[in-house]
Write the structure tokens for this entry.
Amino acid sequence: MKKSLLLLTFLSYAFIASTQVVDSAQNINEVFITAASKEQASLEKLPIAYTTLSAKKIERNSIASPNDLSAVVPNFYMPDYGSKLTSAIYIRGIGSRMNESAVGLYVDNTPYLDKSSFDFDFFDLAGIEVLRGPQGTLYGRNAMGGIINIYTASPLSKQSKQSTKVQASYGNANTVSAMASHAHKFGENVGLSIGGSYNQTDGFFTNDYNGQPADALKSGAARLRLDWNINNRLRLSYTLSGEYSEQDGYAYGMVDSTGKVHNPNYNAPMGYNRTLINNGLLLQYAGNGYSISSSTSYQYFHDHMQLDQDFTPDDMFTIEQKQKQNAVTEEIVIKSQSEKNYQWLFGAFGFYKGLTTEAPVNFKSGGVSMIQSALDEAKVQNPNMPAITIVDTLGSSTPPSSLFIPSEFESTSFGFAAYHQSTYNNLFIKGLSITAGLRLDYEQLRLKYQSSALMYSKIVISRGPVMPPITTWAMSNPTYNDKLNSDFFELLPKVALQYEFLQHKYKVYATAAKGYTAGGYNLQMFSDIVRDNLQNNSETGNADAVKNSVYYKPEYSWNYEMGGSASLFDKKLNLAASAFFIDTRDQQIAQFVPSGYGRIMKNAGHSQSYGTEILLSGHVGNLIGHVAYGYTHATFKQYSDSIKVGYKTYEAVDYKGNYVPFAPQHTLSVGAAYDFYFNSKILDMLTIGATYTGAGKIYFTAANDDIASQDFYSLLNAKVSVEKSIFRLGFWAKNLLNTDYKTFYFESMGNSFAQRGKPVQFGVDLSIKF
């Protein structure tokens, strides 16, 4: 199957990644056109793999958050990890579960700098773009896998007019969503829109320990947008948005030896709360043969996570995390605006991000016993060492009920970039173009850390069979309080050739581009470092030793791609595909700490990814449909590590040839909808549609164990709607076949856990527009 798909791709000369958006038989040529300021031409004319979704297609496919894009974008995977905090996105096998994202997200040209803010509720959107492959030349370090551009509806657009929209939906598990927005024009040149949304669900999984929901969610959002065409040349757009969410997650259940995922069963509070505020100001000036744009943003988020780290009813240990971020960005782009063959673009970007994190770890009675067991094992391994017993106070023999390890971090990063891109059209022959670009990217990361713990112990020193032992009491107080600095400087080039022919109905292209993600620090490691020093009865270490323990290196890639597209039968059929090869060095991989109980980011030596994307869309009469398929073969070429097999005993492992975790080998989306039109007093239109989606096989660990994987699974979604005048009533179902599948798997303290996908969902929605 793999060989035939690759052969098909190359025989078709690798048709590019996206097609013209087809949303209805009556308006078949509707194309989503953005106000993007970073490209010299519309996406359909660029040598790039992309997918665009108009507002109508977003509605038809019930895309309510970035997670839902997995159903329609090939080689795109954003699973449900149990909370909005963990919002990892994978494109073509490139992604990151922890720390910095390898996929960038922009909303109205404003970059979201932290992936803790990536998972938010969509409402009143104009469209979405997903650019696949490295976009570092124009977008920088966080774009190694690709870019997601989200555009909200403008109050000055033809679709907005003077309109009010109200939508409401209800489904099983008391799932409620509601949205209202209003756009108002103050003359022809000034428009204001306001809107809000609310979502809630009682959840689909129950915590067996207390019988309470394990994945309940409530969220509310609001947005204000002001657009002002100041004159024929100058345009201003300002957006202010905010969102607050509360989650009871995480719905992680234990996995038994047969692979069955049981219900969640934990005794400590688990949940995630988050506040998001985003401000964006876009100024655009159209000169004679050029245009200038300035995008300024301020972003704030504050969140709070509580985690029962052992995920069982045992009193082992808990983790709490509070984050607060303030970030400012500024980007200026000047580019040519003419019909000349030579097109150019210059840009400059700067950002500042300040992040404070509190991440205390609390070892409860079972966790204290775990540390005590390690001390006892050390005594067995070395009989000459004294016997150490953890106690609650000096002079006592009573074990403590808990051991608290507080940690506080101040992370500051700032960066600057300058970039240029040139395109020359009709090179030698008509339709042939060449594009070349280069970005100089600099970033400095500073970390101020403070982590410590206090432990009392009873020490018994044996003096042989004759002399009585000596008993003393000691206090261990390992403290880490210092600063770390890292600088990252990178050049990100790109070159592309493209040929358009037969009146632009066909095109082929080839590109080469470098991708890059900056390095960073594993804050999760500090509690392990402190705990190890408690067990070893040692004190502080120096900053160099700490940096060696927590630092991970930047990640680099080269992406080689060829593709093309064809528009056939007067645009009634659109075919597109691409083939790619990605060579990645020092890939950042999230893994479990060999000597601890958390997860850290490490660098795999070398990995490679190759694959293909094929898309087909079209219409026959009132029937529209699409097929989107993606294949990714991502494996390690060099990656060795070690696993803990005993007290201070480790065993080397080699993951060469294994698949890269969290990257589905296949993604598939097949959808169709038919519109029936009526000329009656009670009904204008009836629409029946269904979508079949699938993903897999997915490995969740570098070891590629079968139990830690998910075979290819498929979901069937369906929707029936009727329209009359300003009213639209719809009936929908998701996962209609009630497919049982895993979206996430991990290991903790010798146990295996997984997050199951949501079961069958069904409901009804009503929308009114006037």
Summary: The helical segments are 2-11, 55-60, 136-139, 365-381, 525-536, 543-550.
